[in-house]
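Can anyone check this?
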Amino acid sequence: MWLKDRSFLCDLGAPCGQVLGYGNLNPIRKVWNFGFSVVTINHNLITWYLFPAGTRVFFSICHFRAVKGFVMNQEACEPYIATVSSRLKKLTEANHSLAEIELLEGLFPRLLDLTKDVMESEAASLMLYNPKLNKLEFASIKDDVVGDKEQDILKSSVKLNMGEGIAGWVAQNREPVIIKDAQKDPRFSKQADKKTGFSTRTMLCVPLIHRQELLGVLNVLNSKDKPFFEEHDLGLLESFADLAAVAITRSKLLEARVEQERFRAELKAAAQIQKLFWPELPAMGDGSHLWAVSEPAASVGGDLYDVIPMSDESWLVYVADVAGKGLAAALIMAALSTKIHSEALLQTEVEKLLEAANKSLYDLASEEGFFATIALARYWPASGKMQLTLGGHPPPLWIAEGAIVDLPQFEGMSLGVTPDAHYDKQEISLSPGESILFFTDGIIEAENENHELFGGDRLVDYIKNSTGPPWGEGLLKIIRGWRGNAAVNDDLTIVEIWRDK
């Protein structure tokens, strides 16, 4: 009785022909476990699951007459078994070879070299699925006929919609196909052939799928030793596609990990560079003192403070907060710092300095939506005199005898919102024992583990129930205690100037 009427299992480790099992054909594949592998039978295809790699290897065996318990015609069987053994060896070698390649740039060419070798084909190509465009794009091509120039043309100009051409059909339906005569198949797209001069006669196309995710398709074109591909060739390519899908996924994960490590290294370097912007706190003299701290929520942040000596023995002091956090905010912060330093040499009035900084920031970053708030002061330590101006920033706290003194009202919008903003200047005088505390909104908006804000009331309560000056260092400890184990949600900066009693 011929194999089309029976299913059976042949022990490849025994003399060719010994039947280990047989039964009537049915849609459910019968399974035997050999200990080192699991083999399933469906018609005249054996599917062999190799462990531990989990690689499926398909191969067909010769049609021969079966007698219960044995298979006859060993001599006719040997050529097929030799072919199967050769292809199985190539698949095993391919599995090892692909496992050694980490990055996609080296993986794709090697994958197609192995595909052509295993399938004994004239050409092979890999098309990756681009989910943003919902198209297939050539990632790599190996061809014995056309040259590198034609291959580059395919990569740059040919993209297939889902459902377009054989590859598009396979990607859309997630089913493998064998095309014995490509030119007569209505699904066949002749784009690639026209651009390269290649003539596709027969082809295999299988989807690359990993954990239900479509990665792309693998194409094999024109068998070298026969007029068209056969069913057992398709099964073999499916096995290789499983290897390829795992290798591509692994390489993508490795590249993502490398990219993450590179980004972490860049952030670490950026954080070190940003620290260079924090000034060494000077001794102001004349009984005046200065304390400051800045802590970014991420590796780098958008908060900024500086202390700049002026020619008349006064000091320019400011605290600024660029909208957002992270690397982009840090870059805007650096640009703003540079501008204020340059304008400090030209402007004698604090409000005019802010107008110049505002115009510069508007020209630089308004189209990207960046802006900054700022509190800027010019302080004369000998007299305690201070000129203040604000640009959309929380006013500083003026603390005298443990109470908060009301400051004059300020008008002035954030920097970078409009090019022609104007700013108010107010003047106060710090008496001995008094302090002025500048801060960014990372203080009042600090969140605890219950997502509660620290708020302005708690800030005022801290001042009333504490002893100072100074107040800033104690405030920092209070904020850290308030957060507990909660993630830092915003950059934080405090700058305090106080006079001895």
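Reply from J.R.: I decoded it. The chain has three domains: 1-82, 101-272, 277-499.
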